Amino acid sequence: EAGVAQSPRYKIIEKRQSVAFWCNPISGHATLYWYQQILGQGPKLLIQFQNNGVVDDSQLPKDRFSAERLKGVDSTLKIQPAKLEDSAVYLCASSLKDNTDTQYFGPGTRLTVL
Amino acid sequence: AQSVAQPEDQVNVAEGNPLTVKCTYSVSGNPYLFWYVQYPNRGLQFLLKYITGDNLVKGSYGFEAEFNKSQTSFHLKKPSALVSDSALYFCAVRVYRDDKIIFGKGTRLHILP
After folding, report:
1. B88 vs B40: CA distance, rounded Å
2. Residue B1 pLDDT grade (very low, low, confident, very high; cuts 50, 70, 90)
3. N or C terminus: which one in chain B shows less Cβ crowding within 10 Å?
4. d(C-alpha B33, C-alpha B101), whole Å
5. Using CA atoms, how far apart are residues B59 and B50, in angstroms rounded to an integer?
6. pLDDT digits over B22-65, tens only?
7. Which residue of A has its CA nearest to B4?
C-alpha cells in the first residue's frame, strides 16, 4: 500500500514570497490533515478535510494560509506571503474515516523562510 | 481548554531496562488517546491508541500504554528497551464529539547501549 506522498521535501524562500505544498493521501482515505511542526514542538493541526469539505480550520492563519482539496483526493497548502515564523515542517496525514482512526503521515516538507 | 502534557523533554534508559514515557491530559469529555513515534528524517508513525474498552492497550514494536482515568494519564511503556527505540515520541488526545486532535510537545527517548 502506497503511503502519503508530499512534495517538495525541502523549500527555501525569502520572506514575503509565496510557497505551495502538495499532498497525495492514501487511496480511499476520506480525511486529510495538514499540520505545522515547529522545531521542538508537537504537530499543530492547521486544517482538516473530510472528503472535500473543511472540518476544522480554526488554527489556520487565514490571512496568509490557504488550503484546498479539490475532488476530495489531493490537497495543496499555500502560504502567501511567508513570514520568518512560518519556518517549520509541514506534515500531511490521512485517515480512513475520521480522526479516531489511525493517521498515516507523509515525510513532510521542511520550509525555511529567510 | 483541552490539553495534553508530556512532562519530560528527554528520557534516558539503558538497553534491556523497562521504559516509561509519560503523558497526561486535560479534557472535558471522554478522551481518545494516541501515541506516535518519529524517527529522524521520517514522518510520524502510529504506535497505539485507546478509544474504549480495556485500559491496557498493546501496540507496535512491543509498546503498550495504560489508560488511567483517575490520574488522567496514558503513559507509554515497554518491558525491555532496544537501542532502535531511540526516537521522538508524541502523545495526542481527541475528545469524543470534538473533531480537534491535539499533540503533546514530544519526548525524546535515548536508549543507551
Report:
1. 8
2. confident
3. N
4. 9
5. 10
6. 999 998 888 899 999 998 877 899 999 998 889 999 999 999 99
7. A42
**Contact status, residue B87 vs residue B39, Cβ threshold 8 Å:** yes
Q: What is d(CA B6, CA B75) in angstroms, rounded to the nearest whole number?
A: 9
Q: Which three cell numbers stand for residue B24?
A: 497526561
Specify the 3-state DSSP secondary structure of B83: helix
Distance in Å, alpha carbon of B97 to nearest chain A alpha carbon: 10
Grid coordinates representing A83 are 513570514
In our burial notation (b when 16+ CB lie closer than 10 A, e otherwise), range B75-111 reads: bbebeebeeebbbbbbbbbbbeebbebbbbbbbbbeb
Classify B92 as helix, strand or coil: strand
Q: Do A42 and B32 touch (CB under 8 A)?
A: no
